[in-house]
Amino acid sequence: MLRTNLVSSRYVGDFNEGEVYHHGAVQITPMRNREYINKYKDGFILGANPKLSSHLGYEDPDYKHKRQKYGIEESALVSQGFLFNAGFGLSVHDISFNAIANLSYSDLRFGVPVFEGDVIYAKSEVLGKELRKDGATNGSVQVKTTVYNQRVETALEYKRQVLVRAESGRTYAQMSTLKPQPKKIDIGKVVLPRFYHGLSEDLLGKNGKVFEDFKSGGVYNGFFEDAVDLVTFSWLQIATLNDAAVHHSPSSNFIGYGGAVKARVEGEVSTHFPLAYHLGINSGSHDAPTYPADIVKMIFADGEDGEHEKIRARVEVIDTALVQGRDDIGVVTIKLIGEKYVTDGGMKAIKAAGFAGIDKVFDEGGSRFLRVLTLEQVLAVPTSKAFK
Hints:
Elements: E1 20-27, H1 30-39, H2 50-55, H3 63-70, H4 80-95, E2 99-110, E3 119-131, E4 138-148, E5 154-165, E6 175-176, E7 219-221, H5 230-239, H6 258-269, E8 277-286, H7 293-300, E9 311-323, E10 326-341, H8 344-352, E11 362-364, E12 367-382
Antiparallel strand pairs: 1-3, 2-5, 2-8, 3-4, 3-6, 4-5, 7-9, 8-12, 9-10, 10-12, 11-12
Helix pairs in contact: 4-6, 7-8
């Protein structure tokens, strides 16, 4: 497709149902995986503890090749949070470079585990699109993205709906070919973790819980609250080849990458279930923009300190279920919620970017908040029988 005036990507009119785009590849190096864990305080230790993963039977099929060619002596499991972002980033150039917002996720399932040094590839199929009114200057595109490794084994698969601009001067008639999506992932199709066994209770830390501790309706708050600065937002985009224009534009106040917001929220609650293995996501949405805290401080708050864009997280337990044939794990379905503090500077940033959901800001205990993320996640959590 000839685009003489663009670096990359498609407008909404360029997407056609049934098209498949092959996005390229990226190697997940140990440095990037471990830096992600450190920057976002990812407390899911299975992706950071090679001795633990080895004890549970995870062995990299390509470890000899990686040792010889790349000098990787011990390839740990890749954090599933980083894998999500790496796979997503590969698709941005073709799908959402010209996006206004990533609207939702559905039917997300993790596949085979990924090890440090693996090369991941991605492809996306256009499922449908929607233009909500006559004369539309943007529309939503629905795609299915598949991420696979160098052995062509599926590591991640999900569907997302993204709001994409029309080409300058173009408008479109109302239409919709969006496909209905399941409300829940099919547990029969997920890849369960290897058997948990002989675990030390020390691995749970002070606040970790086993499957039996979780009850439907339970609420668990994050253990810290933190904002994300421009460098940290940008690091994740660079590390995952995510070049979406909206995150680099002064006119959008450098709206933060949603994957980094997800990473921050997951990190804040991860200590509740440090041994959890992510099976998938039933559904989810980015509910409002988050800006780099230092950008809000410098541009909209006259350099004054404050809780600019600081995020708080909590988990609401939706359901728990046993797994047939397994006494070492149970499935816990949670609603993961992220909300940001809204300061006076943050209110100015929202207005400047033209965000339409400013009426959703709410007061609580003398502070203002805005929901930024809602994800219905499905986790495998070890039972008490998995411990010594």
